[in-house]
Amino acid sequence: MLGFLKTLNKWFRDFILDDVDKPYDGPLPYHKGFGKKKDPVKRIEKRFDEQKKQNRG
Questions:
Q1: Helix, strand or coil for residue 28?
Q2: How far apart are the first and last CA of the chain?
Q3: Which residues of the chain register pLDDT less than 70?
Q4: What is the sign, positive or negative, of the torsion defined by CA atoms of 45, 47, 48, 49?
Q5: What is the distance between the alpha carbons of residues 56 and 35, in angstroms, rounded to a whole number?
Q6: For the chain, what is the largest distance between any 2 Cα atoms, rounded to a whole number of angstroms?
C-alpha cells in the first residue's frame, strides 16, 4: 500500500509541477527595470571613480 501511495504522490506532483520545471525564456520579471547588462557595470565603475576622487580630498 505504501508503494502505491508513493507512486500516486509522484504522479500527482509531476502533473501539478510540470509548468515549474520548464525553462523560462526571457528576462525574469524583476529584472526588467535594470536595462542591459553592461549599463549597471558602467554605472558602478563611474560611482567607484567618483568615490576615489572624493577620497583624495
A1: coil
A2: 77
A3: 19-22, 26-38, 57
A4: positive
A5: 32
A6: 77
